[in-house]
Amino acid sequence: MELVDFFQPLDESLLMDDGMQRNRLGEIIEGYFPDKSFPDLSSADIVLIGVTEDRNALSNEGSAAAPDEIRRELYKLHKGNFNPKIADLGNLTKGFTTEDTHFALTSIVSELVETGVMPVILGGSQDLTFAQYRAYEKLGQIINLVSIDPRFDLGDADGELDNRSYLSKIILHQPNFLFNFTNIGYQSYYVDQDAIQLMKNLLFDTYRVGIMREHIEEAEPLIRNADMISVDISAVRMADAPGCENPSPNGFYGEEICQIMRYAGRSDKLSSIGFYEYNPRFDNRNQTAGQISQMIWYLMEGFYSRSNDIPQKGQQWDEHQFIKYMVPIENHDHEIVFLKSRKSDRWWMKVPCRSETPSNYERHYFVPCSYNDYQIALKSEVPDRWWQVYQKLM
């Protein structure tokens, strides 16, 4: 597959910035422009993909214009204390149908993830999350999906795919490669109580925005467990991100969502992320485009400070890599094994499984957690994260 055949070159005006200074991302990112060849991905760590697709967006037509507006702000930013190796492939050529666009995006994301390059998708409407998810189906990889969204987007499971029903399509899709779904930042007045109960029945994780804002550090292990992330910009409060069709007066503050993006970048497990539902038609002086560009900047900063310290099944626990804690639980058959990385101070719990558990579930034996989970176990209580994964594996 020749990737260049799927993309359109970027508009040269994106690089026209008054007084362009050195070390701005616009001059560092290797972009696909009319006078330049298609980027060489052999040396890239991160790839930007614009998807100008909004035909499945309910009442959010205009989000197709988002990718270039995000780039316009992103290219102005200075690089941080890291040496980014980033390519911008341009905008994906829109298919004759939305299914054509989805198929192309699935194929591209699958190829990039397989080669170890992280795609950053600039949408477009959030139904593109379904195409992002299906890339892992092509790879045969059982994954965890995190959605940062004030809603669950279950929609009408029997209807057509759109930006309000993509999650139902993922849950019901067969064969299914979803191990766990986590929603971060839902707002109760936007979510039906039956939907909340459904999430509990499916052993999925949901966290209200108030809980996350009060304990923002607890978002870190949730994000660290994700293979892919889907961000609906309406999860950010309207004062910081007005450029969407369904803004909310409440939500994450700009600084908080940037902190979460840094957690995402630092996650050694994360292999793709998409930013969706931004609509320049509703923006105020490119404020939302600037917010998203800064979120991507923090994602990059996190990416280039990764520790590469994920524990693996069968790995010998070298005392120079991890500190191992064995915590017995009263009236419970298993003691809980905690591992703390000496390199990053991050925590994991090991979850036992049946001997006949398929090998493609091995990536889920170690559950990212926090020091708080360890403290819970010391009180002879089973942490919720451990129990949910245990039920799925057993």
Quick rundown:
The chain is of the alpha/beta class.
Structure description:
- There is one protein chain.
- Helix 3 (98-114) packs across helix 4 and helix 4 (128-139) runs parallel beside helix 5 (166-172).
- A hairpin with an 8-residue loop joins strand 11 (322-327) and strand 12 (336-341).
- This protein has 12 helices and 14 strands.
- It is an alpha/beta fold.
- The protein has helices at 25-28, 66-74, 98-114, 128-139, 166-172, 193-201, 209-214, 219-224, 254-266, 287-303, 371-378, 384-393, and strands spanning 7-8, 30-31, 46-51, 86-92, 118-122, 143-148, 178-186, 205-208, 228-232, 272-276, 322-327, 336-341, 347-350, 366-369.
Write the layout of secondary structure elements.
Elements: E1 7-8, H1 25-28, E2 30-31, E3 46-51, H2 66-74, E4 86-92, H3 98-114, E5 118-122, H4 128-139, E6 143-148, H5 166-172, E7 178-186, H6 193-201, E8 205-208, H7 209-214, H8 219-224, E9 228-232, H9 254-266, E10 272-276, H10 287-303, E11 322-327, E12 336-341, E13 347-350, E14 366-369, H11 371-378, H12 384-393
Parallel strand pairs: 2-4, 3-4, 3-5, 5-10, 6-7, 6-9, 7-8, 9-10
Antiparallel strand pairs: 1-4, 11-12, 12-13, 13-14
Helix pairs in contact: 2-10, 3-4, 4-5, 9-10
